UniProtKB/TrEMBL annotation:
PANTHER family with a match to the protein in the record: DNA INTERNALIZATION/COMPETENCE PROTEIN COMEC/REC2 (PTHR30619), RECOMBINATION PROTEIN 2 (PTHR30619:SF1)
Chain ranges of the DUF4131 domain: 77-205
Subcellular location: Cell membrane
Matches recorded under Pfam families: Competence, DUF4131
Sequence ranges assigned to domain ComEC/Rec2-related protein in this UniProt record: 268-549
Keywords noted in UniProt: Cell membrane, Membrane, Transmembrane, Transmembrane helix
Topology in the lipid bilayer: Multi-pass membrane protein
Segments traversing the membrane: 50-67, 97-115, 291-310, 330-351, 372-393, 399-417, 429-452, 472-494, 501-519, 525-549
Listed Low complexity bias regions: 636-651
Region (Disordered): 633-660, 751-771
Name of this chain's protein: ComEC family competence protein
Primary location class: membrane
Length: 771
């Protein structure tokens, strides 16, 4: 080594330690500044008392532990734990963890109490039975069919061992409509609320359980007439109010013809019967479906206009304005009007939640506190979680709460910005009008962004024109339709409601025209299944952005990006889907195309499969277009031994009662799984021998195939619910995923109950050939 190289090496050795020390010094300065900045942000959060928002978050975690993890804690233990932790947190206010843990225990106690309180009997299986009960509600759809909610008091032929308390009966036969409070007697085919159409789908038994609905029924003929000597029923106060609701709906539809009348009745009285499918599709595709259900928007508009009318009335009378607090009087009147609107809407769960939020905000106004604050939103969430904890898992609550939190949060930010830039002088009308439309655009954008993840998660669809449609229709809805609805309801007792209702109908016509135009230009797109972890991270980002007061809210940006990366379900779609009735089956090929067993599958079930696993544009491949299933028809006579003589042959001209033909279908999935489907149990052995998955759409006693093939029957599907079947990526075996994760859940216990007496109608020859 030369002298020059040696000197360079020595210089590098001498400079290495100072350079390392400089890096360490810069790192120490960075962390020191970061700790100082973090302390300042925490001080801002402490001053804003944002730790209060941890309380509803604790309730959420406790409720999710009960409903999501099949944890059934002791109610008394949860209450004692919550009280002890709350006492510890009260004694040490600086310690936030004990109070947060207390609300986690309180949320678990709330969910546990709700499960003990709700005693809905969900019907087990299917049965044809005569029922006798009392009509609690009725409506008529656009096709003229009547639908009744019946409180069942007696069942006959057969007498059911576990009759549901309430059933919704669809009657297609012509008959004189039965009034609320009268008797319903007739032969109906009862069935339980369906489970998820696929693993990860919505379980309709969950909502039915908490709504008290135990069965759905189809009337086999018109309901029986009321005996002439039967005394007139004594109506309860609830039934009288329901009759008043129906009379109001009939009055609205008599003044406003067509779909406008049906939608007007929906937004005023909550009765959504008679709305055409096309109108519902236009509103759904454009993201306007929320106008059909009485939600926070409707309740806020009604309460707001009631307050404006009362304050204007007080201001018009100087003596009243000087002696009475007009703001508080208006808040009391608005609270009463909102309560009447809630009762008129039928005390629906979603409407009740909206009323609670409005009631808390109006109560704040009574005590001279700001109404539109995030603290009031958190208080409303606490009340909802303590009264109806299962609402946390519903799409309506998640979307309404997300939109409300985002709108209130952006409202506060816009108000602070406007105060900073305002110089105290009155602004010109043009500027105020421009700010009004900017506010509508901003709030519509924020609400759309906040609700989009939940809409995509629950419904697997996105509305591309949702923002545009809401920006165009919200002014019409807010300043035309809802004010006229309030005026018409006030004028109805005096017979002066025709003109307001007519104008209201014209406003709805304009909304329909906008929705139809946008729906035809760009229909909604399926999103596929979304992951739970992705939705949870996006929810955390939303809560962080809305409820934090300092610059720590910027953490919501990277959190949302992580959520967007994790929310799509990137797992390969299954190869075979089986609905719980055993008759709706579909194969997903290598191109993502769904090939159903039936040429005309059940649209409700198949539509959910299409949205969950979107494929090419021509995703619905029938047997003619893509013969994934090769089927043969089995005549009943082919399975019986032929007669050895003509002695038993029917005489000429004699009618022979023949059973419906059976089918035997074969298919192969994209990885080579052999599938056989049949509704003839006598071919069960052959189905097992010829397949890897044998689906027998009958009630049979066998649960396994001797050939080691997977056996799926109505008996197994009753426990598992719908199935998705695929090839295991590693072991190469067949993976079967069930839609019913835990049959022990209260809303799924009917699956383990004894089957009803009329579960299965035997056909000729069944008695001797049942396996």
């Amino acid at each position: 080594m030369s002298a020059t190289e040696g000197s360079r090496t020595a210089d590098n050795a001498l400079g290495a330690e100072p350079q390392f020390g400089s890096v360490r010094l810069r790192s120490a300065r960075f962390w020191s500044r970061f700790r100082m900045w973090l302390g300042e942000q925490i001080a801002v959060e402490t001053e804003a008392r944002t730790s209060f928002y941890l309380l509803p978050l604790g309730l959420m975690l406790g409720i999710l532990a009960v409903y999501g993890a099949d944890w059934r804690p002791s109610l008394s233990v949860c209450l004692v734990t919550a009280a002890g932790l709350a006492g510890l947190g009260w004694a040490r206010p600086a310690a936030k963890v004990p109070m947060f843990a207390a609300f986690v225990a309180l949320g678990a106690a709330s969910a546990a109490y709700e499960l003990q309180r709700v005693d809905t009997v969900i019907f087990s299986g299917e049965a044809t039975v005569r029922i006798d009960g009392r009509v609690l509600w009725r409506d008529r759809d656009e096709r003229g069919r009547m639908r009744y909610l019946v409180a069942i008091e007696r069942t006959e032929r057969p007498t059911l061992s576990r009759p549901p308390q309430h059933a919704e009966i669809l009657v297609t036969a012509r008959h004189a409509p039965i009034e609320v409070g009268q008797r319903y007697r007739g032969l109906v085919r009862l069935r339980a609320p369906s489970g998820p159409a696929l693993p990860g789908g919505y379980d309709f038994a969950f909502g039915a359980f908490f709504e008290g609905l135990g069965a759905y029924g189809f009337a086999l003929g018109a309901p029986g007439p009321t005996p002439p000597d039967e005394a007139a029923p004594t109506l309860t106060a609830t039934e009288r109010f329901v009759r008043m609701r129906l009379a109001i709906s009939d009055r609205i539809r008599s003044v406003i013809d067509g779909p406008e009348g049906a939608v007007a009745a929906a937004i005023i009285s909550g009765e959504r019967s008679g709305i055409p499918d096309d109108v519902e599709r236009w509103l759904r595709v454009t993201g306007l479906s929320h106008v059909l259900s009485i939600s926070g928007l409707h309740m806020a508009l009604v309460a707001g206009f009631a307050m404006v009318l009362v304050r204007c009335a007080c201001a018009s009378v100087p003596s009243v304005a000087l002696r009475l607090p007009a703001k508080k009087l208006a808040a009391v009147v608005a609270l009463g009007v909102s309560a009447f609107y809630l009762a008129l809407a039928g005390l629906d769960v979603a409407t009740t939640r909206s009323f609670l939020m409005i009631a808390i905000m109006l109560t704040a106004a009574l005590f001279d506190r700001a109404a539109l604050t995030l603290r009031n939103v958190a208080l409303a969430a606490i009340v909802i979680f303590l009264t109806t904890p299962h609402a946390l898992l519903t799409a309506s609550f998640q979307m309404s709460f997300g939109a409300t939190a985002a709108i209130v949060g952006i409202y506060g930010a816009l108000t602070r910005w406007h105060r900073k830039r305002s110089d105290g002088t009155s602004e010109r009308f043009v500027v105020r009008l421009l700010l009004f439309f900017v506010g509508i655009a901003v709030t519509s954008t924020v609400a759309g962004i906040a609700t989009a993840p939940y809409a995509a998660y629950h419904f697997q669809r996105m509305a591309p024109f949702g923002l545009v449609a809401n920006m165009l229709t919200l002014p019409i809805f807010s300043f035309w339709i809802m004010p006229l609805a309030l005026v018409a309801m006030v004028a109805m007792p005096f017979g002066l409601d025709a003109a307001p209702f007519w104008l209201l109908g014209k406003g709805l016509t304009l909304v329909f025209a906008i929705a139809r135009y946008l729906a035809e230009r760009l229909p909604d797109a399926p999103t596929g299944l979304l992951t739970n972890i992705g939705l949870a991270i996006l929810t955390l980002a939303l809560l962080t952005a809305c409820f934090l007061a300092s610059r720590l809210r910027l953490v919501a940006i990277p959190t949302a990006l992580v959520g967007l990366l994790l929310v799509p379900d990137r797992t390969a779609p299954p190869e075979l889907l089986v609905f719980e009735d055993g008759r709706e089956v579909a194969i997903i090929d290598a191109d993502g195309r769904l090939s159903p067993l039936k040429a005309r599958p059940n649209g409700f079930v198949f539509g959910q499969w299409e949205r969950a696993y979107p494929g090419p544009a021509d995703t619905r491949a029938t047997d003619a277009k893509n013969p994934a299933f090769a089927c043969e028809t089995i005549e009943e006579s082919s399975s019986a031994e032929p007669e050895s003589s003509a002695a038993g042959a029917p005489a000429k001209g004699e009618k022979v009662k023949r059973a419906a033909p059976r089918r035997y279908c074969r298919a192969t999935t994209r990885t080579g799984i052999r599938v056989v489907w049949t509704d003839d149990y006598r071919r069960l052995g052959q189905a097992c021998d010829e397949s890897d998955v044998a689906i027998v759409a009958r009630v049979v006693r066998l649960t396994v195939c001797r050939s080691a093939a997977r056996l799926v029957t109505l008996r197994t599907l009753r426990t598992t619910g719908s199935l998705s079947i695929a090839r295991e990526a590693t072991a190469g075996g067949i993976a079967v995923t069930s839609a019913i994760r835990m049959p022990s859940e209260e809303w799924n216990r009917h699956r383990a109950a004894p089957w009803p007496e009329a579960w299965r109608k035997p056909t000729d020859g069944d008695a001797s050939a049942t396996p």
